[in-house]
Amino acid sequence: MPTNRAQRRGRPGHDRDDVIRAGVQLFNEQGYDATSVSDLTTRLGVTKSALYHHVDSKAQILQIALDEALDGLEEALQTALTHPTPGERLTAIVDGAVRVLTARQPQVTLLLRLRGNSDIEMAALERRRRFDHTVTDLVREAQAEGLVRADLDAGVATRLIFGMINSVVEWYRPDGPVDPALLGAEIRAVALDGLRPRP
Amino acid sequence: MPTNRAQRRGRPGHDRDDVIRAGVQLFNEQGYDATSVSDLTTRLGVTKSALYHHVDSKAQILQIALDEALDGLEEALQTALTHPTPGERLTAIVDGAVRVLTARQPQVTLLLRLRGNSDIEMAALERRRRFDHTVTDLVREAQAEGLVRADLDAGVATRLIFGMINSVVEWYRPDGPVDPALLGAEIRAVALDGLRPRP
DNA sequence: GTCTATAAATGGATAGAC
DNA sequence: GTCTATCCATTTATAGAC
Questions:
Q1: Does A153 reside within a domain?
Q2: Helix H segments across A82-153?
Q3: Which site in A114, A182, B46, B146 is 20 to 30 Å from A66, CA atoms measured?
């Protein structure tokens, strides 16, 4: 098959996935707005015309990446919701979010940095708000069961725990020393029991 | 005195502080790179020439704001270091960081979103790295005393707790319902003891 | 799948008058 | 302190050839 990746080497011969991947990586290094199409063509070693043969626009690259991030998070949330008890649902969404965030780190990073500067960004932020809202419901439910401190506002508690979770995109590297599965367990432990050793 | 703010009303009559304040606010709404000088002049209701009478460049506005953020954080760190015990030093820097972050929210927000796209950004990131490094030392010290779980890498623990703290800039509003002093205590409690109710 | 060439708009910044 | 007018580099994107 000539579609084989190894056989394509010699002169570029990029496909759409190459462009998306390189674009997302560059957006994360420099920021979406600070990255020009020229920056991207330079990194890929092609001209603008070649790039526009694969994608419709710079914004489309962002759109595709954001969809991958949101699809992953929403899927993790749906799975978490199938668990029978509030405690299981809460731990499932914490684990699930960390898993998606490490598995699709570049795409989720873009999502978390959005400012709503275009229709695409605003639509993605709206999907994210719905996700956050449902997670807040899970936290509130866990509070009612006495699994989470009830003296904290559910919204604040959710923001704090997801602040911790989401910050992982800023330093986690797939090829680094931190095991993503272990990290999920550690975050769950710190979120529920804190940094202080249990007596 | 004609320098009085109320008496300046009528036609714009801005000063440098007005420009900085509006610039930082706009940078936070849209992102630094996505904000054009024209966006800023539109918000202020003046022309570009008027704006450039007050500041040398768009980058200078960023520079001034970043210095305010970093000065505040470094000051809080120095104060924390004067405390006699590791436990006090750790709680002091957590409280201090939350205090600076709520008091200078716009400036710190800019700092936390930097990508290192210019010399100014890289210099600020270097100062921030030094801050993070010293805080990690405080966490390591607290681990040695048994005040913080020793099974966690000090760097990971620091990143998780500051992930929680720093995420506050994304939703805290000075005129909102959350009291900044209370928030500091709550974050300290959640960071040390977790979300689960203590037995 | 990639190229050269170019369009059309917007970017940051300045000159010089009032 | 603000204006009009302008410079020039860079931006996203396209036309049409190979």
A1: yes
A2: 86-103, 105-112, 119-144
A3: A182
